[in-house]
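Weekly modeling sync, notes
Attendees: S.R. (lead), two postdocs, one rotation student

Agenda item 3: backlog of single-chain predictions. S.R. asked that every request posted to the team notebook include the full sequence so nobody has to chase files. The rotation student volunteered to paste the first one in as an example of the format we agreed on. Action items at the bottom.

Example entry:
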Amino acid sequence: MRKSQRMYLFNFIFIIICVLMLFGGNGTDINKTIEPLTIHQKSKASSQESKSSFETSVIQKLKNKQPVTIVAYGDSITWGYGRDATRGNVRQVKNPYPKVLEKELRKKYGYNNITVINKGHPGWTSIQALENIEEEVLIFSPDLVISMFGINDARGHNKYSPNALPVLIDQYKENNRQLLQMIKEKGIEVVIISSTTITSKKNNANKTQIHYTNTIKTLAQEEKVKYVNGTDIPIKGNLSDGIHFKGDQYALIADKIMVDIFGTY
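Predicted structure, as returned to the notebook:
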């Protein structure tokens, strides 16, 4: 009887050990199987997200020779303000910077389905820029917006700024902040350029302009958008009236954008 009980106990213990070994082994195998699968899935998701972001960038579209639309939004500098040498009539120069930029991009990337829309308006401040963003920019569903306002904010304008006085710095910053946010909300890339240097003394703009430049640079950092320093563009011998460039010199703006944004040296 005692021998039978011992055998029973031995068999029971043996079975328990076998069961533990069986399930313990499978558990280890399962963990080994699941862990690499989980890592692989995370890696795949991360790769897809990175790929999606990369493929939707303007630079990648240009490299892939996809259609690209860019809106150049700004004041008379963007429009290409000039005056007829004989009659003194205001006119648009033959090659404003958006037109030059389009030519340079087509040459660099080797195809013609690149469009740069000129939405410059002489006299406009950041006030009009914000008020008209829908019909002037967003309606085109562009891939990129290049925004440059500030000269008329600093000088004041008889038609477009309150009482022809400069737009207050805080308002200038807030106008541009809302402008940038509205563009980014549509999934559109944006570059902001500080205004080019002026020598005009109206409302001391030649001295106060630096504050508008510093403000727009800070805003670009806060909103995490690409920034181009317009004051780097040389003006010596290039301005016709202390504000606007001589006809062919507007190309200097396009050249600066090509270097800073599209990596052309």
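Discussion: group reviewed the output briefly. DSSP finds ten helices and seven strands in the chain.
Action items: rotation student to repeat for the remaining queue; S.R. to check formatting next week.
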